[in-house]
Amino acid sequence: MRTRLLDDLEDDDPILSVVNLIDVFLVIIAALLIAVARHPLSPFAAGDATLIRNPGQQDMEIVVKKGDRISRFQGEGEASAGRGVKAGTAYRMEDGSLVYVPE
After folding, report:
1. pLDDT in tens, the chain (103 residues)
2. Measured between alpha carbons, how far apart are the two ends of the chain, in Å?
3. 1, 40, 62, 99: least surrounded by Cβ within 10 Å?
4. Strands in 2-97 per DSSP E
5. Contact yes or no for 62/73 (Cβ under 8 A)
């Protein structure tokens, strides 16, 4: 009879739910760390990456990461139009591929 009472007391220990919460938080923290490390613009990611924000809109921004260097180009809408020089022509083939022909 006495051992039954002790077993019931161990099941109602409030510290066990705190331990379970700590385990849940550890899993969440590990998932967040993995997500940050896998982001292409993070300093831990290997290789180069290009990110285009708001494509085709006036406030478009291009972020380029080459090695440890990150550079940005922000489109200014009408103000940046006409500042370039035509460098060639691109053609879309029947199979969907693009062919660039320099001038």
Report:
1. 555 555 555 566 777 777 888 899 999 999 999 888 887 777 666 778 888 888 877 788 888 888 778 888 886 666 556 667 778 888 888 998 888 888 7
2. 95
3. 1
4. 49-53, 61-66, 69-74, 88-92
5. yes
Phi, psi torsion values for 4, nearest 5 degrees: -65, -40
Looking at residue 87, its amino acid is A
- Angstrom CA distances, 54 to 9, 36, 44, stand at 59, 22, 25
Structure pTM? 0.42
CA nearest neighbour of 63 among 33, 32, 42, 84: 42
Q: How many helices (H) and strands (E) in the chain?
A: 2, 5
Q: How many CB atoms lie within 10 A of CB 98?
A: 8
- Cα dihedral 45, 49, 54, 59, rounded to 10, equals 110
Residue type, 32: L
Domain ranges of the chain: 2-76
